[in-house]
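hey so i finally got around to running the thing on that chain from the lab meeting. sorry it took forever, my laptop kept dying and i had to restart like 3 times. anyway pasting the input first so we r on the same page abt which one it is
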Amino acid sequence: MSTKRKTIWEAEPHTIAKIAMLRAYLFQWFTILGTSSWFRGKDLWYIDGFAGPGEYVNHSVGSPIAALDAAAEAIRKSGNRWGAGDVYCFFIEEGKPIYEHLVGKLAQHTGHPRVHCTSQNGTFVDGLAYLRALDQNPFAANSPLFAFIDPFGPTDLPFSEVRDLLSRPSCEVLVNLDSDGVSRIHSAGESAAHRKHLDALFGDNSWEAELAAARTQSEAALRVLNLYKRKLRALPYIRYAFSFEMRKKSDVLDYHLVFASGHPLGLRKMKEVMKGIDETGAYCFSDAHVGQAKLFTFNDPSDAARAMGAHFARTVQTYEQVEAYALNESPFANPKSMLKVLEKQGQISVDCTGRTRRKWSYPDELHEVIRIRF
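ok and heres what got predicted. didnt touch it at all, straight out
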């Protein structure tokens, strides 16, 4: 379901925030993988599935330029620590005038000799098919890959393609999931060809039972988000899926950015980036709040601790299990602050199988032996 757009348009504040988030994370991603011995000699790939024109009326940097700049900066700052091969960026854009504007923008951009870009005019699906057919592509070489999938609206995002992108190690995605738009397609029923679109989005008909239980539009949007994250976490190489909420000037939900990774470090770094956009810890950016003082702090773990205690009530968990919960379900990069709250309140007991542990501490060297009774 393509949406007709102008060749170049004005970016809303949350769009600019999204690009800043993408650039900041890509710099970390390129730097970490580019200097890791695991990926010595391996090329790194970035795919932009809905690239847009490369700039906006009020902002000169679209996602393609942000990616090229992040890669160039990572290589320059890494210096002789850079051990990976080159960086290859592949930009897909369906709208012909928009694509032509993007090509012109890329031609004007001063890049880095080790950062290469290719573009394709077509749909997301057709663009990936074109990439797979090239002699040099990330799939044949099993290269590390980051994909930014940012469609206009709730369709054109088949789960089969997302699943294929994530079907190899060292691949991550950041997806624009229009959860509110998906819930509205469901409400519209056959008049919106809901079965065709939702089957494609989720890869099966699991949405039927999930959305049948929703009582309100907002609850349906939340169920869409949670189901999508569960589908991602069920993939063989993916353990982590986390979302960031974007809101319009009216402070109503626009969409969720959903990040998926198989490595905890990836989500820790993404949370650092998200925290830089919204320090409240709610992981939400609202155009209605631009310029307003922040009313909450990111560092209070009380609410998150209560939720974690309720989630694990009357069970015994390893530190690794609690850490995975903290990454996927809380604002925090690890569970330590939440565990401290619960232990001080007497709601958990911590056993280290005979090892000495200072109360209210969870040192890294004890993580393998820690058992937590909720």
